[in-house]
Amino acid sequence: MALKALDIYKLLPKKNCKECGDPTCLTFAMKLASGKGDIDKCPYLDLNAKNILGASTRPPIQLVKIGVGERRFAVGEEFVVFRHEKTFYHPPGIMFQVSDLWPAEKIESVTRRVGSEHFVRVGTDLTFSGVAITNESGDPDVFSKAVGVVEATGTHIPEVLMAADPVVQEEGLKKCGNFRPLIYSATKDTYKPMCALAKKFGSPLVVSAKDLESLGEMTKLCNAEGITDLLLDLSFPSLRDYVPAATEIRQKSISRSAPELGYPIFLDTTRYEMQDTALVLGIDKYAGVIVTPALGPASSVATLTLRQNIYTDPQKPIQMNPGIYPVGNPGKESPVLLTVNFSLTYFTVQGYLESSRVPCYMFIVDTEGLSVLTAVAAGKLNETLVRDSIKKFDLENLVSHRRIIIPGYASPLSGKIEEETGWKVLVGPRDAAEIGDYLLKEWKI
Amino acid sequence: MAENSPDLGGKIGYVVLGATKAEDGTRSVSYRLGGESDLPFIGMKTSLGSIPLVAFEICDDPSYWSPIVTSYTGDLVSDTPEWATAAEQQYGADLVRLYLTSTKRRGFDDFPSITKVTEEVLSGTGLPLVVEGSNEPAIDSEIFQRCGEAGQGERLLLGTAEAGRYRSVAAAAMAYNHSVVAQSPIDINLAKQLNILLREIGVKADHIMIDPYTGSLGYGFEYSYSVMERIRYAALKGDTDLAMPMIASAMDSLSVKEVREADPVIRDDIAVAWEFYAALSSAVAGASIVCVRHPKTVPLLKLAFRELWAGKKPGEF
Amino acid sequence: MTEMKTAITLGNASLKKKLNAIEGPFAYEETAYHLPVAYALTGRPVHTAQEAIEVYNLTNENPFVACESVLAFSEQGPGREPAPYTGFIGDAVLRKLGYSLVDGSILGLALVIGTPGNSDTASRICRELQEKYMLTFLAGDVVPSLSSASVKLGLEYRLIPLGSTSIHGVHFVDIITRVALMFGGVVPGDPGRLLAYANQRAKAIAIVFPGLDNEGIALVDALRLLGIPIISLGGYEGGEWTTTLPQDAVREGMERKGIKVTVTAIPIPMSCSPAFEGKSIRKEEMYVEFGGGRSPAFELLRVKPASEVTDGLIRVMGPEIESVKEGSAVPLGIIVDVAGKSMRKDFEPVLERRIHNFVNYGEGSWHVAQRDLIWVRISKDAVKNGIKIEHIGKLIATKFRIDFPDLLDAVQVTMVTDLQAVLAGKKEAEGIYEERDRRIQGMKDTDVDLFYSCTLCQTFAPNHVCIITPERPALCGAISWLDGKIAYEISPSGANQPVEKGVVIDRDKGEFEGVNRFVKKASHGEVERCSLYSIMEYPMTCCGCFECIALMLPEVNGIMVVNREYKGDTPSGMSFSTLAGTIGGGAQTPGFAGISKNYILSDRFLQDEGGIERLVWLPSLVKEELKERLVKKLNELGHPDLFEKIADETKATTLEELVAFLDEVQHPALAMKPLL
């Protein structure tokens, strides 16, 4: 059970010496309580306190960093079973698989694709996370060469080295070991040499076993070898087992009833025929690293969008940049529709406006991501904001008329906006679905 | 007690859709949904709960339907009962969901056509039927009475009840023994309230399915996903006002920008992917019925569910 | 004049005789319910004379059973009455009627029976029933009477002629019975449930003309058992029927049964819509204004007994718009009198606040403020279109009926524009405002057994629930205990629920057994205990919309409070937003609590920690805002100089500065019991 801030505070020296970087012990205690602090930062903790705090203040799921440089990513450090309880923090890395039996051009082309392909959604760049090189040849030299091809592309993307034989792994690591690749994987028989390699190259390591109990044993064994950056391999023979296993791991990690399972999850979807299904299950349910064959255009954009959706903080609405967004080909006489910068509102209204086929301008003001109702209630959407935004985005030069349509739920502001801006306010419908009808009926030049 | 999750003592209630000859109906199959006592997909291991079902959505006036579907499907969309037949025999859906889009027309008053199309679709397919009634509150009363009566004895699922607009669909459900789709705007407390309102008016708990409103992928989907997880969890914790099976339809999927503006060569693939990812995720979140509109999505979902629920037949508990 | 008691006895005897004369089998057509009333009461299908007699005896010689049996027997084959009479109505048609009852297209059922002396009266009553969306069944002489007045009869006109004799009135009962069985969850053989359904849920009335035969009287009188009000138009002596004038019959019947016609339109010559809420009327645009400092004005809503309120009555006491010069300021008193079975005096201020919204709905009407500070304007355009002061009253009255259909039965509005009357009314109103304020101010947690919960923020924080008490408002500052109570009574399945206090576990901490139970359930088991008056131990959970955060500062043995608007540093080392991020989301964080600003002034604030003397730091703007009331309270508690000893950001923004300051002023917290 996680300790509360007050209980942690009681165990701290209470000197307020600031040497941990925080202004007071209370602040430090609160950080530890939310799993975000590092007890080693306090130089005056006695051993007893350290032991009690250590176990219960480190994140329930180990934070594991993979790769170096701009494209590096981290997984783990999660605190909840359901995203709605707070949020998920670290989206899974999705790695495209290449085989060491492939011709160099093919390996290169997949690698370059991961390096450069990106989709922009809601102001964020979405990319795949890296490549996973599989040792189908069984030959350390062939494997090493394949890794070399990936490295030679200069894309510096994170890698997963998938070879069961430690000898083969070593050859691969010689080529890219400086770049924190993920080693796949250690089994009961190979964990000693694999851990040695992990230690040598400072790489994270995946452990594989037949069930959760055995996985737990594996992590303990690896811990004893000094390795804590681990992932649990949940690529069981049947995809059916994934969700129950992943859920059990997450539940037991969060409740701290099985700290030996407190590690991110690895899922290799290439084992299963139903790629998209496996991807969806992994993204929805707790996977930290997912290996998949290079995806087609449809699956690519759907996968990245789903990952973005599930890993969005539910308490932080995604915001659009405020500004003027044309719909269709609007001109000087086209209507101007005011609304908030909550992305969902924007997309919903935009969709309806596009279907209405009336060219117009969407005038998005900064309500810090709040929806219309909330922004009106909280006073964030107000006449001053509208006035300032009109000026900021030079609306007066964009259209020759001085009429602005506001959302139905913002009607209480109509008079004030008129007074403050001098523009005439038309109150639109409350339901965005009716905006098309409204424009066709009410907008007259 | 659930195998996996601690402290869950509740259970999702049952809803039966479709009546076979044994029950004086004409459906070829009847489904019993619900009964889960753990989180979704956990039951795969222990065979608890029922396999998610795939509903294929059609309508009686395709001018209000996605051009992607109409151009992919062709003339079939103009023949509603034939379209229903295709849903069952070609696409392999588990249910057909009929939207009476003709009621969107301004000044709609062809009420006999409502009875006719409902009866024809019931002939066109032996699958249990979901009927989405009126689009115009002013004609709710007439429309739902007709749908209800036309489907009497078949245990339809009638949609859609909302907080300010539920009396007619509830009345039809009670008069003719159908179940109701209860929709709320992605809010667990409003979902609960609506269920209470429906029960107060006389609709039985085992005749209600919760529709939390499903946003499409990238356009609010995650809100719906989390609300479904919350509803399932609350139900398993003992909240009987939320212990109803859920239905999810990300109906805007085919009109989102990514799909609409895709290269025509891959547009159908993107449409299918958009639907598939949302529908499967909805099932992961706890939906018992997921609904799609592109024919190609149906077999993909059926395959996924069949693989994930070893040897379970739809509707089997 | 018919004498009731005798008539009933004779009527029952006659029915019994007819029953005994039945031979052979019989059945109603197109029904799965046999003889519906007999079936519902006893669970026994009746299809033979013997069964009929058995069931008649079983039900203590119930006249409905007798009538049913007699009709079922006589209506067979050639006995069937010709059109327009319907006789027994089959299940399929009935299902449709039941549907309309449930979906609200029909408000209720009426039985009209007897021998009208005047067919005009009968047709007027039937027309009124039609206009009020009632489904009317006719039996006996009333049918030819209506036909002779050329009144169209039939299902489509909602005037259904059951049969030519008064006994045919029993179809009214078998219809109600079957609706109960089909829709009401009533199971055959459960007479208790059937009676309960009929009494509580069935919206049915009976209107009786004089001249009923004895059998008819026996039948109609038995309707009383089902809770059906019997409105007689005279001619019956003794008995328990209500006699009214014909013009009052329908209204009386519907009122008794609580059948209300839903209002949807506002019948005034002005557009009304929420879209006009924010629209203001400038000086140049106005025709007349009231209040706002230019003339005396007030608004008041009062609950009155039903007998004192006439629904829809609008009066203007004083000059109307015609005698008002354009551009002038006129006195105004808006007095709204309401009646409703579940309406309470406590609800007055909540409803009164709505006058503001309602007046603003009008395109040409505008309203600001409340109570005796109101300022109202009517635009020139509106007056040009025919708007009068009376219409503003009508707007208010109609909106109240539309928005509160279950709470209010009757609303009447008086618009007072006579100066003397306004001044007198204003004085009286001011007394009422003061009394209301006193009532809520004086309320203590110990005065009530129920607290109220609020789960409005659960969309944001799934496990959070606020427990609102008279002395502790919701942490958002928006909802008081009274607001929660009223919200619950208006919407019993809404976000505010009653919380039973239960046994007191700890008086100082404010820990109650009932509250713990409630919180445990509402938080899905996450939170097991909640101390309402403590910050340090099991404080209430927080969502994210608290106005302020109270937190412990162990180093100075005190509690500090920081508000949302304060963006700077606090002695805790954390800003408001940092703190909010960690304690929000439904967490219970000992030592930290989200609170409303006004709670700082409550006696319960910091009660478990020893009281207001624990307060060591508060941002200056909040100090200023609360100054008057806080100083008053501190004086009363015997701490006249404590106000100056509470630090703010001008005195300290770090812990060190705070320690120094508190030491210097000798703040009482330093000497109190250690917090930890």
Structure, described:
- The complex is a heterotrimer of chains A (445), B (317) and C (676).
- Chain A has 3 domains: 5-57, Electron transport complex subunit B, putative Fe-S cluster (3-methyladenine DNA Glycosylase II, Chain A, domain 3, Orthogonal Bundle); 64-310, TIM Barrel (Alpha-Beta Barrel), CATH 3.20.20.20; 323-442, 3-Layer(aba) Sandwich (Rossmann fold), CATH 3.40.50.11600.
- Chain A is built from 17 helices and 17 strands.
- Chain A is 39% helix and 17% strand.
- Chain A is globular and about 80 Å long.
- In chain A, a hairpin with a 2-residue loop joins strand 4 (119-121) and strand 5.
- Chain B is an alpha/beta fold and 317 residues long.
- Chain B has one domain: TIM Barrel, CATH 3.20.20.
- Chain B is built from 11 helices and 10 strands.
- Chain B has helices at 43-46, 67-73, 80-91, 111-124, 140-150, 167-176, 188-201, 221-236, 257-260, 264-285, 297-308, and strands spanning 15-17, 31-33, 53-59, 95-99, 129-132, 157-161, 179-183, 208-211, 246-249, 287-292.
- Chain B has an 8-stranded parallel beta sheet, covered by helices on one side.
- In chain B, strand 7, helix 7 and strand 8 (208-211) form a beta-alpha-beta unit.
- In chain B, helix 8 (221-236) packs parallel to helix 10.
- Chain B is globular and about 55 Å long.
- The two termini of chain B are 17 Å apart.
- Chain C is of the alpha/beta class.
- Chain C folds into 3 domains: 2-257, Rossmann fold (3-Layer(aba) Sandwich); 274-441, Bifunctional carbon monoxide dehydrogenase/acetyl-coa synthase(codh/acs), Chain M, domain 3; 446-671, Bifunctional carbon monoxide dehydrogenase/acetyl-coa synthase(codh/acs), Chain M, domain 5.
- Chain C is 35% helix and 16% strand.
- Chain C has 22 helices and 25 strands.
- In chain C, helix 3 (49-58) packs antiparallel against helix 4 and helix 6 (119-131) packs parallel to helix 11 (246-256).
- Chain C is elongated.
- Chain C starts with a strand and ends in an 11-residue tail after the last helix.
- The model of chain C has no long low-confidence stretch (mean pLDDT 91).
- Chain A binds chain B through residues 82-84, 121, 239-241, 243-244, 247-248, 251, 255, 274, 276-277, 280-281, 284-285, 296-299, 301-303, 305-306, 308-310, 312, 314, 344, 347-348, 351, 355, and chain B through 4-6, 39-42, 44-45, 215, 217-223, 225-227, 229-230, 233, 252, 255-258, 266, 269-270, 272-274, 276-277, 280-281, 284-285, 300, 303-304, 307-310.
